[in-house]
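Q: I'm teaching a short session on how sequence maps to structure, and I want students to see two examples side by side rather than one. Could you give me a first protein with its sequence written out and its structure tokens following it? Keep the formatting plain so it prints cleanly on a handout.
A: Of course. Example one:
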Amino acid sequence: MPAITYIEFDGTEYHVDVAVGNSVMEGALNNMIDGIVAECGGCCVCCTCHCMIDPEWSEVVGEANDEENELLEMLDVREPTSRLSCQVQVTDEMDGMVVRLPESQY
């Protein structure tokens, strides 16, 4: 399983293994990591699983589709690597990836 590091806005780090095929959101929820609320349960209809992928992982993760981009436009603070974690499916290539969580979801 790929190891993913989740970093809360205050710098608290969680290093967890996430099964291939799970979403980055599921990895956080399954490991009780605060900062990903996931009110819609991963249906891509809210922005409560917003995260920022570290820039060096952007190419591996890929870009948001049109539906996700529309939701991301509603955020008060959007960064170039902002994604909805429910839309990022974990692959073997993501081993070592770093995901940052915004303060707005605490």
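Q: Perfect. Now a second example for contrast.
A: Example two:
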Amino acid sequence: MNEIKLDNWQKRSAEHQKPYKNFLQRANKNKVLKQLPDFHEEAFSKIDCLQCAACCKNYSPRFKTPDIKRISKHLKMKESDFIEKYLQLDNDGDYVTNINPCPFLGEDNFCSIYGERPSDCHRFPYTDEDVILKRPQITLKNSTFCPAVYFVLERLIENK
């Protein structure tokens, strides 16, 4: 396996959007799903999310009902107060944060509700699950701001 360079990865990711799209459309699902755990683990052995936090700085997860219940309880707030203070409905009718960066992101890039974070945050960047193939538009978007998605896509293409 070649060493995947992470310096200047955003530029390379932007240049590789078309090959990524073609790969995601034609990928052998079973082969990809077998490779994901190893590539995911390798990516996170090289990438420290606390050095980046681009996801938390620029985008919001969906806050589903169980997330809202769990987080508002953790913060000792009424659910309605939590929603009013931190959330808004997006165009898809999902609750998302009402500001960016995420109001729970600290200056040190640590999440103040990490143990209670929304399931979308827990699962992000989906590089160890079938979302990477099932939702190619999300994968392509994520590859532009998350070095782990870039890394995994590069590995998958290299090993197709």
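Q: What should students look for in example two?
A: Point them to this: DSSP finds ten helices and two strands in the chain. Also worth mentioning: The chain has a mean pLDDT of 96.
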